[in-house]
Amino acid sequence: MNKIDRILYYALVISFIFINETTIQWLLAIHVGGMGVTEGFNDAFKYFTLSGYLFFSAFRLIPYSILYFSLKYLIKKKNNNYIGMGWGALIGVLFIIIWGSWEAQHSYYTDAHTSSTTAIVFLFLPIYSIATGLIGGLTGYAINYVFNKSKTHNK
C-alpha cells in the first residue's frame, strides 16, 4: 500500500469516527447558537452516550464499508482511477451526512419548530449517502480520467 492509499484510508476512518450528528451539532452550537467552543461542546455532548453513538455508527458504517471494499477491489484490479473515485465518493458521502445533520438539527439553535422524529433522519442519511457517494465517485473518476488523458496527450 503506497502513501496515497494510506492517506485515503486514514481519511475514511477518521471521517467515520468523527463526522457524526454530535460533532455537527457542536458546529451548529458555535456558528448558529453563538456559543463558544467549550460551551458549544458541552451543549452538543450533554446527551451523548456510547450506546447511542454505536447505534448510529452502525448505520454510518454502511456507506463507508461499501467505499472501503470498492477501493480494495479497485486497488487489486490495478485501476489507476481509484484515487479520484475514492476521494470523490468520500466527499459525496460526507456531503449528505454533514448537510443532512446540519439541516435536521438547525432548529435546535433557532426559533424554528423541531420535529419529534428528528432522530430518524440519522438512520436514513447513511442510506442516502450511498447515492451521493456514487455520484461523487463517478465525478472523481471522470476528473481523474480527463486529467490522466491530458497528461498522456501532452507527452
Give descriptors for this structure:
155 residues, mainly alpha, 6 helices
- Helix-strand category: mainly alpha
The profile of the biggest β sheet is: none
Mean pLDDT: 92
Task: Give the H and E element order.
Answer: HHHHHH
* Quantity of strands, as a count: 0
Q: What would you say this structure looks like, in words?
A:
By secondary structure, the chain is an all-alpha fold. Helix content is 79%, strand content 0%. It has helices at residues 3-18, 21-31, 37-44, 50-76, 82-105, 118-153. The longest helix is centred in the C-terminal third of the chain and has 36 residues, at 118-153. The radius of gyration is 18 Å and the shape is elongated.
Task: List strands and helices in order, with pairings.
Elements: H1 3-18, H2 21-31, H3 37-44, H4 50-76, H5 82-105, H6 118-153
Helix pairs in contact: 1-4, 1-5, 2-3, 2-5, 4-5, 4-6, 5-6
Short description:
With 155 residues, this protein is mainly α. Helices cover 79% and strands 0% of the residues.
